[in-house]
Please model this.
Amino acid sequence: MIILGVETSCDETSAAVVENGTHVLSCIIASSRKDFEGKGGVIPEEAARKQVECILPVITQALEKASLRPKDIDVIAVTRGPGLLGSLLVGTATAKALAHIWKKPLLGIDHLLGHLDSVWLKSDTASDDANPPVFPCLTLSVSGGHSDIRLRRSHADNTLIGTTRDDAAGEAFDKGASLLSLPYPGGPALSKLAEGSDEHAFPFPSPLQKEQTFDFSFSGLKTALKYTLRDHPNLSESDRKNCAASFQYAICRHLTDRIQRVLDAHQDVREVHLVGGVSANTRLRSLLQESLFKDVLVRWPSTIRYCTDNAAMIAAAGYFLLQEKGDQAFQPFITEASIRF
Ligand code: KG4
Ligand code: ZN
Model:
């Protein structure tokens, strides 16, 4: 089955053609992120205007790169939310129009479900299906807008186990980076600054340590960084790097600690999946691998471009939803507050 995926939930315009949920024939991503550098974040109105400019060229390129024509597409899958309203409207309205003209079925996909299924996408160099992900698994979904742990028993059976009480993990990286005078988006910049530095140089608290909970909290870490920088106004460059490394370690340790707790409570789980923009963080990947039980496999998307927002994951989620739910997949299936997709 060939699915055309369309993703426009924020400042990326993406279209992808994916075969059988795993094999990416093309994945085009146009980003307006550079426009928001130095502005402290995405400006929704401007992001939506960029979506209008990019959406048709991006879809055309995705088909061309896959060497396919509209008649070869079986289904169109589009992100229905959550995200910025103006940006989402561009993608959903375009997908609806194309589905109507090309006479294709149209699937609305939850953006988070796309991230959850992103580990099923194979890299261009993958040769076989020898080791596909298995259920049940825990998925740690960490991006600029969300930090959740879900217990997944199938593609359509996802139970929310823990979530953030304040900032998302990516937001903590972004706000920390801003305090360290680094550009937006802060995650990649902060982790680059932290490279090779001493992550134990500055003490940061362990949030919600004494509570019996699987939830996260990052706002205390951000405040601790603020006070650290206030109390050390003239940090040398190497101390600034150590401070970034210590802050990054505190975030990664908090995320890893929660996963360990959930694994203790769900001992049938043998796989942990790390998805969303923050899954690109190499320290988080290595800390999870170092800390978890030896027989627990940690996976993340096969390339960085499947960590951040992309349409291939939306096409993959559409495919697996159709496999599991058949025609029911076409019915509206999620509200933002629900815990089952
Ligand atoms: O999934 P995503 O592209 O967009 C949302 O749906 O939010 O995630 C973007 C977030 C940003 O907060 C960015 O700072 C963070 O992911 N991020 C990182 C890294 N790369 C992206 N955070 C830490 N380390 C990274 N290498
Ligand atoms: Zn996302």
Observations:
- The chain has a mean pLDDT of 92.
- Residues 237-265 form the longest helix (29 residues).
- DSSP finds nine helices and ten strands in the chain.
